[in-house]
Inverse folding.
């Protein structure tokens, strides 16, 4: 009976040690899992921060490019307007010269016709 009691105590101690070992192992696994989750979360947050910064730079560049294109377009329209005005002025001057030459020829023809 004494041996059974001793065996029972030994078994109880062994079970206690096993339970303690399992609990320790579970705590280690939980701690490792917490660290892994924290590291993954940090990496995701860093990645999202980088993505947000990249998007901000892209939006800023896009806005700047749009402003430059609008400015260039407006400048081009103004240059085109000035060019058309200059061409119209030159055509008007040329037309005036041709009209004057035609009037001169007409007057000369009228003078010749009147002298005959």
């Amino acid at each position: 009976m004494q041996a059974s009691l001793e065996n029972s105590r030994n078994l109880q101690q062994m079970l206690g040690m096993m339970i303690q070992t399992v609990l320790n192992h579970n705590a280690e696994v939980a701690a490792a899992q917490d660290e892994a989750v924290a590291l993954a979360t940090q990496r995701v947050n860093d990645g999202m921060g980088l993505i947000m910064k990249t998007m901000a730079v892209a939006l800023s560049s896009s806005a700047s490019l749009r402003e430059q294109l609008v400015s260039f377009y407006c400048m081009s329209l103004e240059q085109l307007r000035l060019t058309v005005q200059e061409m119209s002025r030159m055509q008007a001057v040329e037309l005036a010269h041709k009209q004057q030459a035609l009037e001169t020829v007409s007057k000369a023809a009228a003078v010749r016709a009147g002298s005959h």
Notes: The radius of gyration is 49 Å. The helical segments are 2-115.
